[in-house]
From TrEMBL:
It comes from the Eukaryota. One of its GO terms (molecular function) is carbohydrate binding. One of its GO terms (cellular component) is extracellular region. The chain crosses the membrane at residues 6-27. This is ILEI/PANDER domain-containing protein. Residues 109-195 form the ILEI/PANDER domain. The keyword Acetylation does not apply. CDD domains: ILEI_FAM3C (cd13940). PROSITE patterns: GG_LECTIN. It comes from Oreochromis aureus (Israeli tilapia).
Length: 233
């Protein structure tokens, strides 16, 4: 009788232990899938640290992300914004870096690359200090952009303090939907064009919010990549 009772107790116990092991394995697999998906969706240039962590200025290989091949009538691009005031933005065209740290042509404020919209040739790269700089040259540049040009922009550090109505309207004319709501230390990336109709779908914007910022006083870095149509010949 004692042996019968012992066997009767062991069977439920084994069922419970087996169930616990199965649940643990499922949770571990779910966590791995989540982490893989999370890192897969991040720009490959920088790993986001937890809230309040220090940012490293060291960069990994592959600054332009995974090489992208677009149809002949489109131009590939890759952009990421700056991270706080430590890691500058990067802009790549046809899998080649055209603005970034390695070229010493990125800076605080709004960074810009202008392309020939028919060929993808880089016509201009520059950056404009939107905190304490003179924005008149930026206004003049935007007014001088020829129809049929593709315009790529990325924020770094502080992009909005001197962003007046004239600048906002000029950038909105290039297809931006978010420029009028760009605020202090927000992150923003954008691809538009001179002479396009409607609003561009190539735009990302994240507000700076002390409750959700990844870094001290700044939101997380954001990236955008894709194929933008060429202007017709």
């Amino acid at each position: 009788m004692k042996h019968a009772v012992l066997r009767g107790s062991v069977v439920p116990l084994l069922v419970v232990v087996t169930s616990v092991i199965i649940v643990v394995v499922i949770l571990q697999q779910s966590n791995v899938s989540f982490e893989a998906g999370w890192h897969h969706n991040l720009p490959k240039v920088i790993n986001f640290p937890p809230h309040g962590a220090k940012i490293s200025s060291k960069r990994s290989a592959g600054v332009c992300g995974t090489p992208r091949e677009c149809p002949a009538h489109e131009i590939s691009f890759y952009i990421h914004s700056g991270a706080a005031n430590v890691v500058p933005p990067a802009i790549c065209v046809q899998n080649k870096l055209v603005l970034g740290t390695a070229l010493n042509n990125a800076g605080g404020g709004i960074n810009i690359v202008i392309l020939n919209g028919k060929t993808g040739e880089v016509l201009k790269t520059d950056h404009y200090n939107m905190y304490s700089g003179d924005v008149k040259p930026f206004i003049e540049l935007l007014k001088s952009i020829e129809r049929g040009s593709i315009v790529i922009m990325a924020s770094y550090d502080e992009p909005s303090t001197k962003l007046n109505d004239e600048l906002k309207n000029l950038i909105a004319e290039l297809g931006s939907s978010h420029i009028h709501s760009l605020g202090y230390r927000d992150n923003w990336v954008f691809v538009g064009g001179k002479g396009v109709t409607g609003k561009s779908t190539f735009e990302k914007h994240i507000k700076s919010d002390s409750a959700t910022n990844k870094y001290d006083g700044w939101p997380e870095l954001i990236g955008l990549e894709g194929c933008v149509p060429k202007f017709p010949e």
